[in-house]
Amino acid sequence: MPxxxxxxxxxxxxxxxxRTPGALAFTLGNLVARLPMGMFGVSAVFMIAGSxxxxxxxxxxxxxxxxxxxxxxxxxxxxxxxYGQARIxxxxxxxxxxxxxALLLCVRxxxxxxxxxxxxxxxxxxxxxxxxxxxxxxxxHRDDPAALHTANSFEQxxxxxxxxxxxxxxxxxxxxxxxxxxxxxxxxxxxxxIVLFAAQRTTEPPVxxxxxxxxxxxxxxxxxxxxxxxxxxxxxxxxxxxxxxAYADGLGHRSAAGGVLALQAAGSCxxxxxxxxxxxxxxxxxxxxxxxxxxxxxxxxxLLAARATGSLAxxxxxxxxxxAATAPTMVTGMxxxxxxxxxxxxxxxxxxxVTAILGxxxxxxxxxxxxxxxxxxxxxxxxxxxxxxxxxxxxxxGHGRYAAPPRR
Length: 408
Prior knowledge:
This protein is mainly α. Helix content is 76%, strand content 0%.
């Protein structure tokens, strides 16, 4: 690879990033494949609730899929590391798309409830498209930390963009066309994007033979504290979503909840892009603690807005500001995950981080719902505040472990 000036030293860092041969092609394919991650859950709720008249059943089915993903995703990622992205991602995506279509048929044909759980669980094989894209950037810019920082920031912004657009697209399709439209389009986008992404073989990281007796990245020094930070951060996301929906519903504006939550994602997306263009001076492990501290402080804004004003517009502005610290936290955390993960296990390491986030989202949703039932939606905003504070505590305590050189 030719030597280049670190991208962070240039004002046009993102433009230079995509001048890397093959970068734009795999990014576009990955973007198409990643969009359905925000579509399948919403589409399933529309289908099941509309057909069976039960939001409880719809929620239970989607929760089962989330739990199955947490179990299956690390194994899928391990296969990707062992045999390559193209060989594993395409068949894994085909199984996931088949599961989504099977759910559609089960709903359409009025099959027994248990078939819905079985069908949706098959979507757990969906490849970690964000992780595979980050692995390509890590391979292409392995000797340029500044470029990798910009790339990781871009990837986090894409995650937030898909979080904003996916549910909106799914809801629009299911409402304007027919309840199954979101699932159909999501399955088509997943397969199309994965095939396009896998076709870009020149940027695919080479397969590194797994060392004999190699252990899970979790056993690497400093990796577990990072997973704990991701788990607590996921709880911030999950609780914030549930409490905001309940708060908007209490004001008689439940339909506006999606737009309000999209503002939080928009704040995070914008912050991620700005963070990628910056040149952080602090060492990356100290930077993580600083980002988490900012997140904990900014998460107080929605609580203050809800308690002091009772205005959905003010809350939306508070969420926009609160989102500004989440992307830098995720970008810095993923950078540390890449540094702590043993060679040849990068997809597995990043998927474990995503799994921790999913587990945190599930736990945060449950605790946030309980808080709303027991104390009301206004006080429910204490849950994301406490979750962010827990992430800060874990980050501060674990700093010494993930800051030290990893022992391979």
